[in-house]
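Researcher: Let's continue the batch. This sequence belongs to Single-stranded DNA-binding protein, and it's 137 residues. Same format as the previous ones, please.
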Amino acid sequence: MPMLDSHFVLTRVGREEGALMAHVTIHGTLASDPKILSTGGFREIVLLRVVETLEWYDGEGSRHTGESEHHVVIVSGPDAENSMSLRKGDTVLVEGHSYVGTLTDEAGEEREMTQVSALHIGVSLDKFRVPSNRTTG
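Model: Same format as before. Here are the structure tokens for Single-stranded DNA-binding protein:
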């Protein structure tokens, strides 16, 4: 079975019949390098572990940080190959559908975990300075 990380084995990927899904946007940091998995067919998927931490400023301008949420993001199609160039620590934006999937831990016990099936994924530029190559004329 494909390994998600050292503690979990992915046992089911996909949408369940009648499952409730929500459209989500995640802005977070990769907790590890992408992992490529074979589904047994012609299609490969990439798993990303994304950590998202809510930050906000109060009325006095003080910065606050909330609890971190951990997401398993499943990337397929053309974005799967492109996402393999990402590395741990990169900040990403993910748009997709969130649903509950099942993971089996090393003891063989099944656990439910929220997963996101990515529709779009990109690098967030909030921590990078990108030089402009525009010309005037």
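Researcher: Any comment?
Model: The chain has one domain: 8-123.
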